[in-house]
């Protein structure tokens, strides 16, 4: 069942604690295995997002009316976006020891999604959950509970950074009933 963020909920996020060296290594080691299947994993993540949270498709004119998961998987536009998502994640994971690079990636992604695409920031939180779910299922041998905890912390940091960019650019909440 799809649940949208309640009005005012999560407005003042607490910054997650920085990743430890051990957490960085666990994320990078597990990501190396995930990224070998970059395209398939990216498509699996987006298809799961769109099937479980259909309102997230409203931002994609090319496939927002496609209901069938197999048809979504075949969509060239979805595959292209999946590739961009995976490349952005790859840059973040490769740059975990470079906070300026991480901040730069988050700024580009945050600004584009706030200003150009007008995506509600809650979808980044939803996407984080979907990423964790897919990685845990598809890569259960490498995404152990300890590794999943490190990923959870990383994705919370990403969400915190993205929402900070949204605030910086003056994001105002839009009604989610439009579209």
From TrEMBL:
Region Disordered, annotated ranges: 1-20
PROSITE patterns xrefs: GLOBIN
Keywords linked to the UniProt accession: Heme, Iron, Metal-binding, Oxygen transport, Transport
Reactions listed under catalytic activity: 2 superoxide + 2 H(+) = H2O2 + O2; Fe(II)-heme b-[protein] + nitric oxide + O2 = Fe(III)-heme b-[protein] + nitrate; Fe(III)-heme b-[protein] + nitric oxide + H2O = Fe(II)-heme b-[protein] + nitrite + 2 H(+); H2O2 + AH2 = A + 2 H2O
Membrane-spanning parts: none
Globin domain sequence ranges: 18-167
InterPro entries from the UniProt entry: Globin (IPR000971), Globin-like_sf (IPR009050), Globin/Proto (IPR012292), Globin_lamprey/hagfish (IPR013314)
Record keyword Metal-binding present: yes
EC code: 1.15.1.1
Gene Ontology MF, one: iron ion binding
Keyword Iron: yes
Family that this chain belongs to: Belongs to the globin family.
Name assigned to this protein: superoxide dismutase
Species of provenance: Sander lucioperca
